[in-house]
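re: that complex we talked abt at group meeting.

here r the seqs, copy pasted straight from the sheet so there may be weird spacing, ignore it
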Amino acid sequence: DIQMTQSPSSVSASVGDRVTITCRASQGIRNSLAWFQQKPGQAPKSLIYAASSLQSGVPSKFGGSGSGTDFSLTISGLQPEDFATYYCQQYNTYPPTFGPGTTVDIK
Amino acid sequence: EVQLVESGGGLVQPGGSLRLSCAASGFTFSYYWMAWVRQAPGEGLEWVASIKQDGSGEYYVDSVKGRFTISRDNARNALFLQMNSLRAEDTALYYCARDWGVWGSYYFDYWGRGTLVTVSS
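got the structure back, here u go
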């Protein structure tokens, strides 16, 4: 199975900050990488697929990049509603696997 | 609006069985692969199983093969997960999710709120 790692595991930031989260795959996965946001007590919400394509309705302050094994999610102009846990997921190789998550909390 | 609503979770003893359901609305259910994804308390996400549009293909994570069965009823817009021989490590919040691609992409674009399964004596 492909192992997904994320860094940092948590980050403290202030409203208005820009935050970047990285995700690494243990093998090349082309651009078959998705990002999800999860708030406490809520279902995961899809943000980005194909490494850089925004899911419908997701604001452009979320941006994704990368290909192969290294990917990143950038959140610009952090707002209170953006404080959450973010997961990456590869869907290039069966079985699909998720990263361990990165928690973005308020500094 | 796409909606996925899970039900059927609860407390069950080790070795017991449980059947989860997911009611889908807001899209043409029969066009999409569907999946179950779980999240153990305080842990990350783990894909559990997926099923083709017509139910002709089922796919499972190794840890549940032979114990769990995914199925669907397209006439009722419903997805199911029959869980047998449950173990403590199956304790998790189980999410129903829609697969984005009609070919089975394993990218999940919509998720339900989940139903909690607790396996404990």
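couple things i noticed - DSSP finds no helices and eleven strands in chain B. Chain B touches chain A through 19 residues (CB under 8 Å).
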